[in-house]
Amino acid sequence: MSVPALNRPALSVVPDRPELTVERVVDADVYKSVFRRHAAGVVVITADAGHGPVGFTATSLVSISLLPPLVSFAIATSASSWPTVSTASSVVINFLSADQHAIAGRFATSGIDRFAEPTRWSRLDSGEPVLDDAPSFLRAQIAHRFAVGDHYLVVARLATHTERRAHEPLLYHDGRYATATPKAHHA
Q1: CA-CA distance, 86 to 48, in Å (whole number)?
Q2: Separation CA 187–CA 182 (nearest Å)
Q3: What integer best gives the mean pLDDT of the chain?
């Protein structure tokens, strides 16, 4: 089933003083600026399609459906991990804690062996690579891959979850890793 395209105005910010409003077309610079202000959780997605482990840092993880339990994430068509993710039947979504920015940085770095020391990793009984220091992870079966712009949107059905310890999440905001600061609850 196809959904007709909607004609929507360009993204704009509504300031406290409407007379200062300036609408801008969403070009690459505006796009980056808008999403730098949007905090996102950080995960490392790992996979192996039979040629060795791959992994990458992602901030695009989204919960899609409870029944069946589905998530999605995006991966660039130019990503070194894409050839493996394009053929793998499953992935592991490794959640990172607030103090694990070094792991996130390592899996976001191109041209290195992300699984070499100091990365601690092992394989699940089902064969997928998993980060040993991840406080929590999900194993998922890939259900769909959709080409979307310069990325692929991957939809995966959750199979198992392992919680190793409670943790505060690692976030990415304004071009750097960050932590959440909970606000006091108001009665």
Answers
A1: 10
A2: 15
A3: 88
Entry field: residues in the chain: 187
Kindly report, residue by residue over 15-33, the tens digit of the pLDDT: 566 666 778 788 888 888 8
Cis peptide before 129 (omega within 30 of 0): no
What is the per-residue pLDDT across 100-109, written as a single tens digit (0 to 9) for each?
999 999 999 9
Closest CA to 65 of 155, 163, 161, 138: 155
Kindly give the residue spans of alpha helices, DSSP state H, lying in the chain.
28-36, 82-85, 101-107
pLDDT on residue 4: 40
Burial class (CB in 10 A: 0-12, 13-18, 19+), 112: exposed
Give the start-end residues of each E strand in the chain: 40-41, 43-47, 54-58, 62-65, 70-76, 90-95, 121-123, 129-131, 136-148, 151-163, 170-173, 176-179
Quote the pLDDT of residue 17. Answer: 63
Dihedrals φ, ψ of 51, to 5°? -120, 20
